[in-house]
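G., the chain you wanted modeled:
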Amino acid sequence: MLDAAPQDETLLEVNNIEVIYNHVILVLKGVSLSVPKGGITALLGGNGAGKTTTLKAVSNLLHSERGEVTKGQITYRGDRIQDLDPAALVKRGVIQVMEGRHCFEHLTVEENLMTGAYTRSASGAEIQQDLEMVYTYFPRLKERRKSQAGYTSGGEQQMLALGRALMSRPETILLDEPSMGLAPQLVEQIFEIVKSVNENEGVTFLLAEQNTNVALRFAHYGYILESGRVVMDGPAAELRENPDVKEFYLGMSDEGRKSFRDVRSYRRRKRWLS
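Predicted structure as tokens:
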């Protein structure tokens, strides 16, 4: 478990951004966050809180969904990036692993992985070395490397999506809902791999996750979003022990486990947003 991350350099800075879809729907309402180099930063919150929109604002994938950043600024290594196209951002070392484990279903597992190196000007030997690195983290992918990706399991496809991102040799990975649709044992396995990649390869992660419990055990720092706003942030260890987070996101209170049906959302908003 991770409680402290390197804080000497901020890679990504999101400063008071607003995002609007279709020119009328305000989704993000002044979101600010920073991602330190070498850390795992978690964006937490329920469905519709604005986590995925925040990641897409950073990776510049909003325009394909008729969304745009209308206020605020996003910088990476001090440079404004919100006007770059997604491909240019990938070349700068920032890549997003989309929610839903997108892969090229008709290609084999290994062919999918090789597409991750497409943007690089690397030698065949370097790419082969990176492929073996990916297989070290994901031995299951090596076993299935000749299988058609569309016939692999959900867990294998999540591994494939993450492995393909690693083939681009990224500095920062934006990871969207890695636990979605996976059994608890597989979720633990995926997060353990994220931790290992972070520690061994120095890859920085900004991950969006509804599973607050597991995310706070592996992240260094967390931001909790509600209705397009950051309502709380802090070191993961502190958030794990915060009474509000325990009650509303971890399902625990001082009296023990509490059903979400017993929690009235207006109490949460009143306490955090007042």
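DSSP finds eleven helices and twelve strands in the chain.

Shout if anything looks off.
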